[in-house]
Amino acid sequence: MALTLDNYFVPGWRDATYTCAACEWQGSARQMPMELHEDEAQFDCPQCENPILLVVHPSLAQVQAAAADGHPEAIEQLDILAAAPRPH
Fold this sequence. Notes:
Layout: E1 3-5, E2 18-19, E3 26-27, E4 34-36, E5 40-44, E6 51-56, H1 60-68, H2 72-83
Parallel strand pairs: 1-6
Antiparallel strand pairs: 2-3, 4-5, 5-6
Organism: Stenotrophomonas rhizophila
Protein name: RNA-binding Zn-ribbon protein involved in translation (DUF1610 family)
């Protein structure tokens, strides 16, 4: 069973050590292949392809709250959204 992370902006989740329940491989999210889905990113074991981590995409409110708290990635995401063309 994959671990679900509901708060994308939790510090350190990319570098934390995770253990695969199927084969006991250990490593960080940076070492895992990622599959993007509509509501989440799925990180799979590089050894046996078992899903290890599901990271739910943040809502706009979560991005805004994290940016207000000074989270650099959230601030960058808001800047990207602000630069996007708007329909007239």
